[in-house]
Amino acid sequence: MSGPVRLDDVRMSPFLRRITIFSSGGPFLEGYVLGIIGVALVKMTPELGIDEHWTGLIGVASIIGLFVGASFGGLLTDHIGRRKMFVLDLITIIVLSIACSIVQEPWQLFVLRLIIGATIGADYPIATSMIAEFTPRRYRAISMGFIAAVWYVGANVAYLVGYFLLDAPNGWRWMLASSVVPCVIILLGRMSIPESPRWLYSKGRTEEANRIVRHVYGADVVLDDETVEKTKIAKIFQWVYFRRILFVGVIWLCQAIPMFAIYTYGPRIIGAFGLGEGKAALIGELVIGTFFMLGTIPAMFLAESWGRRPLVIWTFVIMTAALAVLGVVPDATLWVVIACFAIYALASGGPGNLQWLYPNELFPTDVRATAMGLAMAVSRIGTVITTYVLPDYLASHGIGSTMLVGAAISALGLVVSVAWAPETKGLPLSETGRPDFTGR
Protein backbone atom coordinates (compact mmCIF):
# COMPACT_ATOMS: atom_id res chain seq x y z
CA MET A 1 0.00 0.00 0.00
CA SER A 2 1.47 3.36 -1.00
CA GLY A 3 2.18 6.03 1.57
CA PRO A 4 0.90 9.60 1.76
CA VAL A 5 1.45 11.95 -1.18
CA ARG A 6 3.34 15.22 -0.81
CA LEU A 7 1.42 18.38 -1.65
CA ASP A 8 3.80 19.17 -4.51
CA ASP A 9 2.87 15.88 -6.22
CA VAL A 10 -0.95 15.89 -6.06
CA ARG A 11 -3.26 16.02 -9.06
CA MET A 12 -5.06 19.15 -10.19
CA SER A 13 -8.67 19.44 -9.01
CA PRO A 14 -11.65 21.72 -9.74
CA PHE A 15 -11.10 23.51 -6.42
CA LEU A 16 -7.44 24.22 -7.23
CA ARG A 17 -8.48 25.54 -10.64
CA ARG A 18 -10.95 27.85 -8.89
CA ILE A 19 -8.17 29.17 -6.65
CA THR A 20 -6.11 29.96 -9.77
CA ILE A 21 -9.01 31.66 -11.54
CA PHE A 22 -10.10 33.95 -8.73
CA SER A 23 -6.61 34.64 -7.43
CA SER A 24 -5.85 35.94 -10.93
CA GLY A 25 -8.32 38.78 -10.38
CA GLY A 26 -5.58 41.27 -9.52
CA PRO A 27 -3.72 40.89 -12.85
CA PHE A 28 -7.03 41.04 -14.70
CA LEU A 29 -7.86 44.30 -12.96
CA GLU A 30 -4.43 45.79 -13.68
CA GLY A 31 -4.81 44.99 -17.37
CA TYR A 32 -8.30 46.44 -17.33
CA VAL A 33 -7.38 49.59 -15.40
CA LEU A 34 -4.37 50.36 -17.63
CA GLY A 35 -6.29 49.59 -20.80
CA ILE A 36 -9.39 51.59 -19.99
CA ILE A 37 -7.49 54.77 -19.08
CA GLY A 38 -5.81 54.77 -22.49
CA VAL A 39 -9.25 54.83 -24.15
CA ALA A 40 -10.85 57.22 -21.66
CA LEU A 41 -8.05 59.77 -22.16
CA VAL A 42 -9.18 60.22 -25.77
CA LYS A 43 -12.48 61.77 -24.65
CA MET A 44 -11.67 63.18 -21.21
CA THR A 45 -8.69 65.24 -22.45
CA PRO A 46 -10.75 68.05 -24.05
CA GLU A 47 -13.52 67.88 -21.44
CA LEU A 48 -11.21 68.25 -18.42
CA GLY A 49 -8.62 70.41 -20.20
CA ILE A 50 -5.84 67.83 -19.80
CA ASP A 51 -2.49 68.91 -21.27
CA GLU A 52 0.57 66.74 -22.02
CA HIS A 53 1.81 67.15 -18.44
CA TRP A 54 -1.42 65.81 -16.95
CA THR A 55 -1.71 63.13 -19.63
CA GLY A 56 1.63 61.74 -18.50
CA LEU A 57 0.74 61.98 -14.82
CA ILE A 58 -2.66 60.33 -15.20
CA GLY A 59 -1.19 57.61 -17.40
CA VAL A 60 1.52 56.88 -14.86
CA ALA A 61 -0.58 57.27 -11.68
CA SER A 62 -1.71 53.67 -11.37
CA ILE A 63 1.83 52.43 -12.12
CA ILE A 64 3.24 54.56 -9.28
CA GLY A 65 0.52 53.10 -7.08
CA LEU A 66 1.47 49.59 -8.18
CA PHE A 67 5.04 50.28 -7.08
CA VAL A 68 3.93 51.43 -3.63
CA GLY A 69 1.31 48.70 -3.16
CA ALA A 70 3.61 45.88 -4.27
CA SER A 71 6.47 47.13 -2.07
CA PHE A 72 4.46 47.10 1.14
CA GLY A 73 1.71 44.63 0.27
CA GLY A 74 4.12 41.73 -0.05
CA LEU A 75 5.74 42.40 3.32
CA LEU A 76 2.34 42.70 4.99
CA THR A 77 1.17 39.49 3.32
CA ASP A 78 4.14 37.51 4.66
CA HIS A 79 3.48 38.84 8.16
CA ILE A 80 -0.30 38.52 8.54
CA GLY A 81 -1.23 35.94 5.90
CA ARG A 82 -2.39 35.70 2.31
CA ARG A 83 -6.16 35.76 2.76
CA LYS A 84 -6.98 38.74 4.99
CA MET A 85 -6.44 41.38 2.30
CA PHE A 86 -8.07 39.23 -0.38
CA VAL A 87 -11.45 40.82 0.19
CA LEU A 88 -10.58 44.29 1.48
CA ASP A 89 -8.58 45.30 -1.58
CA LEU A 90 -11.47 44.51 -3.93
CA ILE A 91 -13.94 46.52 -1.86
CA THR A 92 -11.50 49.44 -1.97
CA ILE A 93 -11.21 49.26 -5.77
CA ILE A 94 -15.01 49.27 -6.11
CA VAL A 95 -15.32 52.47 -4.09
CA LEU A 96 -12.44 54.20 -5.90
CA SER A 97 -13.71 53.25 -9.35
CA ILE A 98 -17.04 54.89 -8.62
CA ALA A 99 -15.20 57.98 -7.35
CA CYS A 100 -13.16 58.15 -10.60
CA SER A 101 -16.34 58.44 -12.63
CA ILE A 102 -17.37 61.71 -10.96
CA VAL A 103 -14.08 63.65 -10.98
CA GLN A 104 -14.08 67.25 -12.19
CA GLU A 105 -10.35 68.06 -12.20
CA PRO A 106 -7.26 66.24 -13.54
CA TRP A 107 -5.59 66.17 -10.12
CA GLN A 108 -8.58 64.33 -8.62
CA LEU A 109 -8.28 61.59 -11.22
CA PHE A 110 -4.52 61.37 -10.64
CA VAL A 111 -4.96 60.84 -6.88
CA LEU A 112 -7.70 58.22 -7.29
CA ARG A 113 -5.79 56.31 -9.95
CA LEU A 114 -2.74 56.38 -7.69
CA ILE A 115 -4.67 54.72 -4.86
CA ILE A 116 -6.29 52.18 -7.18
CA GLY A 117 -2.84 51.22 -8.43
CA ALA A 118 -1.57 50.78 -4.87
CA THR A 119 -4.50 48.52 -4.04
CA ILE A 120 -3.98 46.35 -7.12
CA GLY A 121 -0.23 46.27 -6.45
CA ALA A 122 -0.87 44.93 -2.95
CA ASP A 123 -3.02 42.18 -4.43
CA TYR A 124 -0.22 40.78 -6.61
CA PRO A 125 1.91 39.21 -3.85
CA ILE A 126 -1.20 37.77 -2.24
CA ALA A 127 -2.63 36.24 -5.39
CA THR A 128 0.58 34.82 -6.82
CA SER A 129 1.68 33.38 -3.49
CA MET A 130 -1.69 31.67 -3.11
CA ILE A 131 -1.44 30.10 -6.56
CA ALA A 132 2.18 28.99 -6.13
CA GLU A 133 1.57 27.54 -2.67
CA PHE A 134 -1.62 25.64 -3.54
CA THR A 135 -0.60 24.39 -6.99
CA PRO A 136 1.41 21.14 -7.42
CA ARG A 137 4.74 21.59 -9.20
CA ARG A 138 3.62 19.78 -12.37
CA TYR A 139 1.01 22.48 -13.03
CA ARG A 140 2.77 25.54 -11.59
CA ALA A 141 4.00 26.95 -14.91
CA ILE A 142 0.55 26.60 -16.44
CA SER A 143 -1.14 28.25 -13.46
CA MET A 144 1.28 31.19 -13.49
CA GLY A 145 0.94 31.41 -17.25
CA PHE A 146 -2.78 31.73 -16.72
CA ILE A 147 -2.10 34.86 -14.63
CA ALA A 148 -0.16 36.41 -17.49
CA ALA A 149 -2.93 35.53 -19.95
CA VAL A 150 -5.57 37.01 -17.67
CA TRP A 151 -3.68 40.34 -17.61
CA TYR A 152 -4.14 40.60 -21.37
CA VAL A 153 -7.73 39.42 -21.16
CA GLY A 154 -8.38 42.32 -18.79
CA ALA A 155 -6.75 44.78 -21.18
CA ASN A 156 -8.68 43.42 -24.16
CA VAL A 157 -11.98 43.55 -22.29
CA ALA A 158 -11.17 47.18 -21.45
CA TYR A 159 -10.67 48.00 -25.12
CA LEU A 160 -13.95 46.30 -26.03
CA VAL A 161 -15.79 48.26 -23.34
CA GLY A 162 -14.04 51.43 -24.50
CA TYR A 163 -15.01 50.75 -28.12
CA PHE A 164 -18.72 50.61 -27.28
CA LEU A 165 -18.64 53.54 -24.84
CA LEU A 166 -16.31 55.84 -26.76
CA ASP A 167 -19.04 57.92 -28.39
CA ALA A 168 -21.66 57.53 -25.66
CA PRO A 169 -22.69 60.54 -23.53
CA ASN A 170 -20.28 60.69 -20.56
CA GLY A 171 -18.73 57.55 -22.02
CA TRP A 172 -15.35 58.05 -20.38
CA ARG A 173 -17.00 58.30 -16.96
CA TRP A 174 -18.79 55.00 -17.52
CA MET A 175 -15.49 53.50 -18.63
CA LEU A 176 -13.76 54.43 -15.37
CA ALA A 177 -16.68 53.14 -13.30
CA SER A 178 -16.93 49.87 -15.24
CA SER A 179 -14.17 48.10 -13.25
CA VAL A 180 -16.78 47.68 -10.50
CA VAL A 181 -18.29 44.78 -12.45
CA PRO A 182 -15.22 42.48 -12.54
CA CYS A 183 -14.42 43.45 -8.94
CA VAL A 184 -17.78 42.15 -7.71
CA ILE A 185 -17.39 38.88 -9.65
CA ILE A 186 -13.86 38.29 -8.31
CA LEU A 187 -14.94 39.20 -4.76
CA LEU A 188 -17.72 36.60 -4.78
CA GLY A 189 -15.33 33.95 -6.10
CA ARG A 190 -12.71 34.59 -3.44
CA MET A 191 -14.98 34.27 -0.43
CA SER A 192 -14.49 30.50 -0.08
CA ILE A 193 -10.70 30.37 -0.66
CA PRO A 194 -8.87 29.36 2.55
CA GLU A 195 -5.53 30.53 3.89
CA SER A 196 -2.39 29.04 2.34
CA PRO A 197 -1.39 25.90 4.29
CA ARG A 198 2.27 26.49 3.40
CA TRP A 199 2.15 29.91 5.05
CA LEU A 200 0.40 28.52 8.13
CA TYR A 201 2.96 25.72 8.38
CA SER A 202 5.87 28.16 8.04
CA LYS A 203 4.46 30.10 11.00
CA GLY A 204 4.20 27.01 13.19
CA ARG A 205 0.40 26.75 12.86
CA THR A 206 0.66 23.12 11.80
CA GLU A 207 -2.78 21.96 12.93
CA GLU A 208 -4.53 24.68 10.91
CA ALA A 209 -2.32 23.90 7.94
CA ASN A 210 -3.03 20.18 8.10
CA ARG A 211 -6.76 20.80 8.44
CA ILE A 212 -6.79 22.87 5.24
CA VAL A 213 -4.62 20.29 3.44
CA ARG A 214 -7.11 17.55 4.37
CA HIS A 215 -10.03 19.70 3.24
CA VAL A 216 -8.49 20.78 -0.07
CA TYR A 217 -6.39 17.76 -1.08
CA GLY A 218 -7.60 14.80 0.96
CA ALA A 219 -6.52 12.76 3.97
CA ASP A 220 -3.64 11.02 2.17
CA VAL A 221 -1.75 14.26 1.37
CA VAL A 222 0.91 15.70 3.65
CA LEU A 223 2.80 18.97 3.81
CA ASP A 224 6.21 18.10 5.18
CA ASP A 225 8.68 20.18 3.17
CA GLU A 226 8.29 23.54 4.94
CA THR A 227 10.35 24.93 7.78
CA VAL A 228 9.09 27.20 10.53
CA GLU A 229 10.53 30.65 9.90
CA LYS A 230 9.78 34.12 11.21
CA THR A 231 9.47 36.63 8.40
CA LYS A 232 12.52 38.91 8.42
CA ILE A 233 12.79 41.49 5.66
CA ALA A 234 16.59 41.55 6.07
CA LYS A 235 16.67 38.02 4.66
CA ILE A 236 15.83 39.14 1.12
CA PHE A 237 18.74 41.59 1.17
CA GLN A 238 21.23 38.77 1.54
CA TRP A 239 23.12 38.78 -1.76
CA VAL A 240 21.83 35.38 -2.92
CA TYR A 241 18.20 36.52 -2.64
CA PHE A 242 18.79 40.15 -3.57
CA ARG A 243 20.38 39.07 -6.86
CA ARG A 244 17.30 36.97 -7.59
CA ILE A 245 15.11 40.02 -6.95
CA LEU A 246 17.26 42.08 -9.32
CA PHE A 247 17.07 39.36 -11.97
CA VAL A 248 13.29 39.02 -11.82
CA GLY A 249 12.83 42.79 -11.54
CA VAL A 250 14.98 43.50 -14.60
CA ILE A 251 13.36 40.91 -16.90
CA TRP A 252 9.97 42.17 -15.70
CA LEU A 253 11.08 45.74 -16.36
CA CYS A 254 12.36 44.95 -19.86
CA GLN A 255 9.16 43.15 -20.83
CA ALA A 256 6.81 45.61 -19.15
CA ILE A 257 8.12 48.97 -20.40
CA PRO A 258 7.25 48.47 -24.10
CA MET A 259 4.09 46.53 -23.22
CA PHE A 260 2.82 49.19 -20.77
CA ALA A 261 3.51 51.89 -23.36
CA ILE A 262 1.48 50.00 -25.95
CA TYR A 263 -1.46 49.60 -23.58
CA THR A 264 -1.42 53.01 -21.93
CA TYR A 265 -0.89 55.01 -25.13
CA GLY A 266 -1.89 52.37 -27.65
CA PRO A 267 -4.24 54.56 -29.71
CA ARG A 268 -1.52 57.24 -30.05
CA ILE A 269 1.13 54.71 -31.08
CA ILE A 270 -1.19 53.10 -33.62
CA GLY A 271 -2.00 56.56 -34.98
CA ALA A 272 1.70 57.45 -35.21
CA PHE A 273 2.18 54.53 -37.59
CA GLY A 274 -0.66 55.92 -39.71
CA LEU A 275 -3.00 53.03 -38.94
CA GLY A 276 -6.00 55.17 -38.00
CA GLU A 277 -7.42 57.01 -35.03
CA GLY A 278 -10.45 56.76 -32.77
CA LYS A 279 -12.28 53.44 -33.09
CA ALA A 280 -9.96 52.26 -35.86
CA ALA A 281 -6.99 52.60 -33.49
CA LEU A 282 -8.89 50.71 -30.80
CA ILE A 283 -9.49 47.80 -33.18
CA GLY A 284 -5.77 47.74 -34.00
CA GLU A 285 -4.93 47.80 -30.31
CA LEU A 286 -7.38 44.98 -29.65
CA VAL A 287 -5.75 42.85 -32.34
CA ILE A 288 -2.28 43.45 -30.87
CA GLY A 289 -3.60 42.73 -27.38
CA THR A 290 -4.99 39.43 -28.61
CA PHE A 291 -1.52 38.43 -29.84
CA PHE A 292 -0.11 39.33 -26.39
CA MET A 293 -2.69 37.04 -24.81
CA LEU A 294 -2.11 34.21 -27.29
CA GLY A 295 1.64 34.39 -26.65
CA THR A 296 1.13 33.29 -23.05
CA ILE A 297 -0.39 29.95 -24.11
CA PRO A 298 2.62 28.24 -25.75
CA ALA A 299 4.83 29.76 -23.03
CA MET A 300 2.83 27.88 -20.37
CA PHE A 301 3.81 24.52 -21.88
CA LEU A 302 7.27 25.46 -23.15
CA ALA A 303 8.26 26.44 -19.60
CA GLU A 304 7.73 22.79 -18.62
CA SER A 305 8.89 20.98 -21.77
CA TRP A 306 11.71 23.28 -22.91
CA GLY A 307 12.62 24.88 -19.58
CA ARG A 308 12.50 28.32 -17.98
CA ARG A 309 16.00 29.44 -18.96
CA PRO A 310 15.93 28.81 -22.74
CA LEU A 311 12.38 30.20 -22.91
CA VAL A 312 13.28 33.58 -21.40
CA ILE A 313 16.49 33.93 -23.43
CA TRP A 314 15.09 33.14 -26.88
CA THR A 315 11.90 35.12 -26.47
CA PHE A 316 13.94 38.21 -25.58
CA VAL A 317 15.95 37.64 -28.78
CA ILE A 318 12.75 37.66 -30.84
CA MET A 319 11.26 40.68 -29.02
CA THR A 320 14.42 42.72 -29.55
CA ALA A 321 14.49 41.94 -33.26
CA ALA A 322 10.81 42.80 -33.79
CA LEU A 323 11.09 46.24 -32.15
CA ALA A 324 14.37 46.94 -33.97
CA VAL A 325 12.68 46.43 -37.34
CA LEU A 326 9.91 48.87 -36.39
CA GLY A 327 12.57 51.37 -35.33
CA VAL A 328 14.68 51.08 -38.46
CA VAL A 329 11.67 51.11 -40.82
CA PRO A 330 9.08 53.40 -39.12
CA ASP A 331 7.33 54.03 -42.45
CA ALA A 332 6.92 50.32 -43.19
CA THR A 333 3.80 48.97 -44.85
CA LEU A 334 0.72 48.12 -42.84
CA TRP A 335 1.42 44.39 -42.91
CA VAL A 336 5.04 44.79 -41.79
CA VAL A 337 3.94 46.89 -38.80
CA ILE A 338 1.22 44.42 -37.85
CA ALA A 339 3.59 41.46 -38.29
CA CYS A 340 6.30 43.02 -36.09
CA PHE A 341 3.84 43.95 -33.35
CA ALA A 342 2.30 40.47 -33.53
CA ILE A 343 5.70 38.72 -33.34
CA TYR A 344 6.75 40.93 -30.42
CA ALA A 345 3.46 40.27 -28.63
CA LEU A 346 3.61 36.50 -29.15
CA ALA A 347 7.22 36.29 -27.94
CA SER A 348 6.40 38.49 -24.96
CA GLY A 349 4.58 35.53 -23.44
CA GLY A 350 7.96 34.02 -22.44
CA PRO A 351 9.19 36.65 -19.97
CA GLY A 352 5.56 37.66 -19.39
CA ASN A 353 4.80 34.27 -17.85
CA LEU A 354 8.15 33.81 -16.12
CA GLN A 355 8.00 37.17 -14.34
CA TRP A 356 5.15 35.65 -12.31
CA LEU A 357 6.61 32.17 -12.00
CA TYR A 358 10.25 32.88 -11.14
CA PRO A 359 9.74 35.01 -7.98
CA ASN A 360 7.36 32.45 -6.53
CA GLU A 361 9.83 29.61 -7.14
CA LEU A 362 13.08 31.31 -6.13
CA PHE A 363 12.16 32.35 -2.58
CA PRO A 364 11.08 30.45 0.57
CA THR A 365 7.54 30.76 1.93
CA ASP A 366 8.42 33.13 4.78
CA VAL A 367 9.53 35.88 2.35
CA ARG A 368 7.88 34.78 -0.92
CA ALA A 369 5.26 37.55 -1.05
CA THR A 370 7.77 40.19 0.06
CA ALA A 371 10.18 39.17 -2.69
CA MET A 372 7.39 39.09 -5.27
CA GLY A 373 6.33 42.59 -4.26
CA LEU A 374 9.87 43.98 -4.40
CA ALA A 375 10.60 42.38 -7.78
CA MET A 376 7.44 43.93 -9.13
CA ALA A 377 8.37 47.27 -7.56
CA VAL A 378 11.77 47.21 -9.28
CA SER A 379 10.05 46.69 -12.61
CA ARG A 380 7.63 49.54 -12.00
CA ILE A 381 10.36 52.12 -11.34
CA GLY A 382 11.27 52.10 -15.00
CA THR A 383 7.70 51.88 -16.24
CA VAL A 384 6.71 54.90 -14.14
CA ILE A 385 9.44 57.04 -15.70
CA THR A 386 8.90 55.73 -19.21
CA THR A 387 5.12 56.06 -19.20
CA TYR A 388 5.39 59.63 -17.97
CA VAL A 389 7.94 60.76 -20.58
CA LEU A 390 6.56 58.75 -23.50
CA PRO A 391 4.02 61.32 -24.79
CA ASP A 392 6.68 64.06 -25.03
CA TYR A 393 9.34 61.68 -26.39
CA LEU A 394 7.00 60.34 -29.05
CA ALA A 395 6.06 63.88 -30.11
CA SER A 396 9.68 65.12 -30.15
CA HIS A 397 11.59 62.16 -31.60
CA GLY A 398 9.02 60.21 -33.59
CA ILE A 399 7.88 56.62 -33.65
CA GLY A 400 11.11 55.21 -35.12
CA SER A 401 13.32 56.41 -32.31
CA THR A 402 10.71 55.29 -29.76
CA MET A 403 10.75 51.74 -31.13
CA LEU A 404 14.58 51.63 -31.10
CA VAL A 405 14.57 52.57 -27.42
CA GLY A 406 12.14 49.70 -26.85
CA ALA A 407 14.52 47.35 -28.71
CA ALA A 408 17.42 48.46 -26.50
CA ILE A 409 15.36 47.77 -23.38
CA SER A 410 14.53 44.25 -24.62
CA ALA A 411 18.21 43.69 -25.39
CA LEU A 412 19.03 44.50 -21.75
CA GLY A 413 16.55 41.80 -20.69
CA LEU A 414 18.36 39.36 -22.96
CA VAL A 415 21.77 40.13 -21.46
CA VAL A 416 20.52 39.75 -17.87
CA SER A 417 18.73 36.48 -18.74
CA VAL A 418 21.87 34.97 -20.28
CA ALA A 419 23.85 35.94 -17.17
CA TRP A 420 21.41 35.06 -14.39
CA ALA A 421 18.38 33.02 -15.52
CA PRO A 422 18.19 29.74 -13.52
CA GLU A 423 16.42 26.50 -14.43
CA THR A 424 13.66 25.53 -11.97
CA LYS A 425 11.65 23.14 -14.16
CA GLY A 426 10.10 20.23 -12.29
CA LEU A 427 11.61 21.08 -8.90
CA PRO A 428 9.70 21.50 -5.59
CA LEU A 429 9.43 24.93 -3.95
CA SER A 430 11.36 23.64 -0.95
CA GLU A 431 14.40 23.14 -3.22
CA THR A 432 14.23 26.15 -5.56
CA GLY A 433 13.77 28.56 -2.65
CA ARG A 434 16.94 27.41 -0.87
CA PRO A 435 19.83 29.92 -0.71
CA ASP A 436 22.26 27.36 -2.17
CA PHE A 437 20.08 26.67 -5.24
CA THR A 438 21.79 27.73 -8.46
CA GLY A 439 19.59 26.23 -11.18
CA ARG A 440 22.54 25.48 -13.45
TrEMBL record:
Domain Major facilitator superfamily (MFS) profile: 19-425
PANTHER family: PROTON MYO-INOSITOL COTRANSPORTER (PTHR48020)
Keyword Iron in annotation: no
CDD domains documented for this protein: MFS_SV2_like
Membrane topology according to the record: Multi-pass membrane protein
InterPro entries membership: MFS_dom, MFS_sugar_transport-like, MFS_trans_sf, Myo-inositol_Transporter, Sugar_transporter_CS
Ranges that cross the membrane: 21-42, 54-74, 86-104, 110-132, 144-166, 172-193, 245-265, 280-302, 314-347, 367-390, 402-421
Family the UniProt entry places it in: Belongs to the major facilitator superfamily. Sugar transporter (TC 2.A.1.1) family.
Subcellular location per the Swiss-Prot or TrEMBL entry: Cell membrane
Major localization listed first in the record, in broad terms: membrane
Stated name of the protein: MFS transporter
Domain of life: Bacteria
Keywords: Membrane, Transmembrane, Transmembrane helix, Transport
